[in-house]
């Protein structure tokens, strides 16, 4: 271990375990990819209590 390096005093990141919004339905999906290895799916999400015009694209890993 390198003892010449100083340790950071920064607080660890806060990870949310609850979503502030609830998904009403998925309106659409799109595949974002440069290659099959880096492929990701995004969903157009209609949130509960919001209009369809306020739908947002969200990554599959965040839902």
UniProtKB/TrEMBL annotation:
Chromo domain ranges (all copies): 17-63
Name of the featured protein: Chromo domain-containing protein
UniProt source species: Sesamum latifolium
Lineage of source species: Eukaryota, Viridiplantae, Streptophyta, Embryophyta, Tracheophyta
